[in-house]
Design a protein that fits this description.
Length: 313
């Protein structure tokens, strides 16, 4: 019996949408038989600083896509370490976006390019066999020749398949500060990275990104820790709160949130028979924890492999 689809992509974030968009260019017939599954209704909240670097924008340009507002163009990056500062300026450095709207726009573009988009369908079971993959959700059961896990660092697909967990996970704390950047001496065209936590033994950094979230310009502030062996153990909260106060920000008036990320290992395994990993399911940049640009670029690589397999049988 023929499968329901050629490809099922689980996760309609930047990685999953990128796979579908690139398939529309590389293998249109396959793209029209691609199912893009997203567990949430879009737009949905997404903890993220929202930085899309020039690399990510280049991927979108090659697809003929221009991100819609709200967004903030970035022209400068400033790096600090214990009182010393360095800065660089460049055109096309990147943008910051509101992730909920950015992801919804990208998924809609993937659907317009030919993919079938199902939202509000959480995966509950996955199996792989010689003939392909079977994916079960709360709404139905789908078969496909190929499965793409693009459902993030806590991938349900990988958990269902018994994929080995990462050796460690990056830890992130963040706040959404609705004060304009200028209120604490920042520019809305500059990314701020502070490596000073390294002096305390943390393998990470602080960030302050101008943010267009919520229909106003504020600042997304956070602390990133690789969480690898040798990095500072224990709660990150005291360190982050002290850093906020040093920036003239009262942590008591802001809602503190956190999440984990899957770092791409030194010897990554990103595929198995009938299965490909994309985006954070494969892993994020271990140095800065950046994910959006890599997810967009990784989607192209995954689509290229699927198109090659379809062409060669």
């Amino acid at each position: 019996m023929a499968p329901d689809f050629d490809v099922v992509v689980v996760g309609a974030g930047p990685a999953g949408a990128s796979v579908a968009l690139h398939l529309a260019r590389l293998a249109p017939a396959v793209a029209r038989r691609t199912l893009l599954l997203e567990r949430a209704e879009l737009p949905r909240p997404k903890p993220c600083a929202g930085g899309v670097t020039g690399q990510g924008l280049a991927v979108l340009r090659r697809l003929g896509l221009t991100p819609p507002p709200p967004l903030l163009p970035l022209r400068r990056v400033e790096v600090a370490f214990e009182g010393s500062r360095w800065a660089a300026e460049a055109a096309g450095l990147g943008i910051t976006v509101e992730r909920a709207r950015f992801d919804a726009w990208l998924a809609a573009e993937a659907a317009a390019a030919g993919a079938r988009l199902h939202t509000g369908e959480a995966v509950v079971a996955v199996s792989l066999g010689e003939a392909g993959a079977t994916v079960a959700t709360g709404a139905g059961r789908y078969t496909a020749r190929c499965l793409v896990a693009a459902d993030g660092g806590a991938s349900t697909v990988l958990r269902c398949l018994g994929w080995p967990p990462p050796a460690h996970r990056a830890r992130l704390l963040y706040v959404e500060d609705d004060q304009p950047p200028e209120a604490t001496g920042l520019s809305r065209e500059t990314l701020y990275l502070d490596l000073s936590p390294a002096a305390a033994g943390l393998h990470g950094y602080l960030w302050d990104f101008p943010s267009p979230a919520g229909g106003r310009v504020g600042v997304h502030r956070g602390l990133y820790d690789r969480g690898d062996p040798g990095s500072l153990r224990g709660s990150l909260k005291p360190l982050f709160q002290a850093a906020l106060r040093a920036r003239g920000v009262d942590p008591g008036r802001l809602r503190l949130a956190g999440y984990h990320e899957r770092e791409i290992p030194a010897r990554p395994v990103v595929a198995a028979p009938r299965l490909l990993l994309a985006g954070e399911a494969a892993g994020i940049d271990p140095l800065f924890g950046e994910g959006i640009a890599q997810a967009l670029a990784h989607g192209r690589l995954v689509a290229r492999e699927i198109a090659r397999a379809a062409a060669t049988g």
